[in-house]
Specification:
The protein has helices at 15-23, 28-31, 106-130; strands at 2-5, 9-11, 37-42, 46-51, 54-64, 68-73, 81-90, 93-102. By secondary structure, the protein is of the alpha+beta class. The chain has one domain: START domain (Alpha-D-Glucose-1,6-Bisphosphate, Chain A, domain 4, 2-Layer Sandwich).
Length: 134
């Protein structure tokens, strides 16, 4: 099992606001790197997009209000994985971290662990900017 943890994001918003943002699958597009994905589609419980010629699908699997949002890869995704956003509020600010577990063989892991880590770090950074005061 390959585990990837993003950097921690320090967000200027309550855990409730961040939780609600992450539970809306339409908002996942706002976290993706511009120009690096295409064909984004979403509904209430899932989203899909193409990145590096791979179709990736995410389904909102479960959530624990204001603490955790869990996504699972859809059947179209080339690799089975989970992606969990952990939230911790402290004084009106929220720390968030994305953690992923994927079932990939060691050869494939060598090729994709770096790009996935970069993607999750980017998503964490974009989460910070979504809630920056104007």
């Amino acid at each position: 099992m390959t585990k990837i943890d993003s950097k921690k994001a320090e967000i200027q918003a309550s855990a409730k606001d961040v939780f609600e943002f992450l539970c809306d699958m339409n908002n996942i597009e706002k976290l993706l790197p511009e120009g690096k994905y295409s064909k984004f589609k979403s509904d209430d419980k899932s989203c899909s997009f193409t990145m590096s010629s791979y179709s990736i699908g995410l389904t909102l699997a479960s959530s624990e209000p204001y603490k955790e949002v869990r996504y699972e890869s859809s059947q179209d995704s080339p690799i089975p994985f989970t992606l969990v956003a952990h939230l911790e509020e402290n004084g009106g600010q929220t720390t968030a971290q994305l953690k992923s577990e994927a079932k990939i063989n060691p050869f494939v892991e060598m090729m994709i662990k770096g790009p996935l880590n970069s993607l999750f770090d980017h998503m964490a950074g974009k989460l910070e900017t979504q809630f920056k005061p104007l």
